[in-house]
Amino acid sequence: MTAAQPLTREQILEAAKEALRRYGPAKTTVVDVAQSLGVSHGTVYRHFPTKAALRAAVVRQGLAAVSRDLGAIAEEDGPAVDRLRRWLAALVSRKQGYAREDPELFATYHLIAADDSGAVAEHLSALAEQITHILRDGVAAGEIRPSALAAGGRAVLDATARFHNPSHAAEWISPEIDEAFDAVWDLLVLGLARPDGQEAGRGGDGGAAVPTGTRY
Amino acid sequence: MTAAQPLTREQILEAAKEALRRYGPAKTTVVDVAQSLGVSHGTVYRHFPTKAALRAAVVRQGLAAVSRDLGAIAEEDGPAVDRLRRWLAALVSRKQGYAREDPELFATYHLIAADDSGAVAEHLSALAEQITHILRDGVAAGEIRPSALAAGGRAVLDATARFHNPSHAAEWISPEIDEAFDAVWDLLVLGLARPDGQEAGRGGDGGAAVPTGTRY
Hints:
Chains A, B: Keywords: DNA-binding, Transcription, Transcription regulation. With 216 residues, chain A is mainly α.
């Protein structure tokens, strides 16, 4: 890397993220970002026409990273119910982890995203599509009920919103949040998993198809 | 009712609610409330020791009213799955209705409730218990799976949070919100309803036990 190498979009986004973490969404300016990179604000403006565009790009990049990582799980092999459980646990763990480890930046992202409903809607659609993909695999393998697929991936995403939607972040410090997630999962899996006995789930009447003791 | 009749707690709460609607939670004072009732603020303080206590009491009264009305549905006769659907539809309709018809007061309540986590926790416990009651009836009648009862009423409440939890109020203006609720309900009912065929639900593979066209 030489000094003459042009500034990349990724470098600007990284610097903007750092500035947002430090100064918050209201006080972060394009000049701050440019200064931290040792360039003029004009250079930043060449990539992002407005401060709002820069802020939105930071959040969109963050959402895309979550979606990309989860997409890899959605494509894994193996039983669909187990895969869906891993996928949901990863989503919950990512969102709750960000909120816990970097609460200011998390709140900032949430605030910016509230002004960029298109980004959020796209993100949620992408996630719902990944769930639908898993359900479709499961139906093909005879593990998932076709009627659960008919309800759709978005229904699974919505039914677990309390555990991954940033609007609920204040509730995530509750010591009961993991248990509450397990209970919702147990309920969902009863409907998702194709019964191979009189009852849905492989564990007979008492349980879900996946051990509920699994923590993430 | 004579002029000498003492001021009731209910009259003060009604006046406080009106003041909160008009001035918002930050600007509403005990003096405002007392003035609107034509009494001294000392009279109000005899019932509510602080402004915070008065605000909290208004919200608790509102939550109690919702819980009371839903409790009546939980006690109704008839099939448990249908009753649960009516119960959830009533909850969703009350919360979304308040948010739509009186958005300022709704936001005010939400803000006050955020500072009174005990009131919210109690409210949610009461609601979860009502669902559990319906599930228990359904298990006794052979309509609901025992494993759904094991997941508990709180799981049903949590799985539908997007449609009644005030944290999601901004999403309720979406034209797709009713359809999204129906999809979650379809998924839940697959797990709740005891199968009397190979698939859960009375409508075969395609559907839930309750017509999803029902709007609330």
